[in-house]
């Protein structure tokens, strides 16, 4: 069963914010939301994670709705190097395994 | 730190051949894992390890063996290669108590 639903693809203008949605309506109380990205031909790269509160780091911000059924990853100023496949993953804190779906292919255009 | 390293970067095998994909990390991470990625698809977990001497199966373990004799190394063995094992293989590691996994650059394997 797919735990998350993401759009297949989206475009973004360079220098603008990129907002990537993710639905996880069956998320459990002990499950975290993780975001990874994979630039072409490279290994996945961790971006950010959160449980309930919004989170921000040097790469991105994560906004989680109050009911936790959806979230949005925000890249504040997208650059061409942000072109990648972005994966939204839900898993319990004590579960080591990550299950990657198809993700969202984000293309940043000049 | 070199992070997570994988060798070889590319490999071509004939059906029935065996080989070992190497993975090493120099971050003293307890957790290591192997994933495969087929064209246009997400990653699928093959095997993982929570520490030296401890391994377990993931989603797609058939046809692969692993062992973890040291903290640093986690080799993946293909026992008898099949065309269905043509894929890109990624190794990853994570430190206990931390959430983020670090991935290697991948090994691109073709089985003819």
Describe the structure.
- The complex is a heterodimer of chains A (110) and B (112).
- Chain A is mainly β and 110 residues long.
- Helices cover 0% and strands 47% of the residues of chain A.
- Chain A is globular, with a radius of gyration of 13 Å.
- The model of chain A has no long low-confidence stretch (mean pLDDT 92).
- In chain B, 0% of the residues lie in helices and 50% in strands.
SSE run of chain A: EEEEEEEEE
| Main sheet record of chain B | 7 strands, mixed
Given as residue ranges, the uncertain stretches of chain B (5+ residues, pLDDT < 50) are none
By secondary-structure content and strand pairing, the structural class of chain A works out as: mainly beta
| Helical content band of chain A | under 10%
Number of helices of chain B: 0
Strand order of the largest sheet of chain A: 1-9-8-3-4
Measure the end-to-end span of chain A.
Answer: 37 Å
Proportion in β-strands of chain A: over 45%
Sheet bearing the most strands of chain A, described? 5 strands, mixed
Number of helices of chain A: 0
Q: Percent of residues of chain B in helical segments?
A: under 10%
Q: What number is the mean pLDDT of chain A?
A: 92
How far the N terminus sits from the C terminus of chain B, by CA atoms, comes to: 36 Å
């Amino acid at each position: 069963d797919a735990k998350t639903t993401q759009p297949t693809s989206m475009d973004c203008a360079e220098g603008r914010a990129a907002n990537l949605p993710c639905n996880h309506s069956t998320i459990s109380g002990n499950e975290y939301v993780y975001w990874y990205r994979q630039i072409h031909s490279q290994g996945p790269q961790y971006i950010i994670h959160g449980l309930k509160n919004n989170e921000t780091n040097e790469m991105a911000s994560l906004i989680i709705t109050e009911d936790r059924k959806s979230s949005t990853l925000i890249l504040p100023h997208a650059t061409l190097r942000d072109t990648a496949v972005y994966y939204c993953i839900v898993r319990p804190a004590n579960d080591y395994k990550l299950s990657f779906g198809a993700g969202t292919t984000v293309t940043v255009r000049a | 730190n070199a992070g997570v390293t994988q060798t070889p970067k590319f490999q071509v095998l004939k059906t029935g051949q065996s080989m070992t994909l190497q993975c090493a990390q120099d971050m003293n991470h307890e957790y290591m894992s192997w994933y495969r990625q087929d064209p246009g698809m997400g990653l699928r977990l093959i095997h993982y390890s929570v520490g030296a001497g401890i391994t377990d199966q993931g989603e797609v373990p058939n046809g692969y063996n692993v062992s973890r004799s040291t903290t640093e190394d986690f080799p993946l063995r293909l026992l008898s290669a099949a065309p269905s094992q043509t894929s890109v293989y990624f190794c990853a590691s994570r430190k206990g108590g931390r959430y983020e996994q670090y991935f290697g650059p991948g090994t691109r394997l073709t089985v003819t």
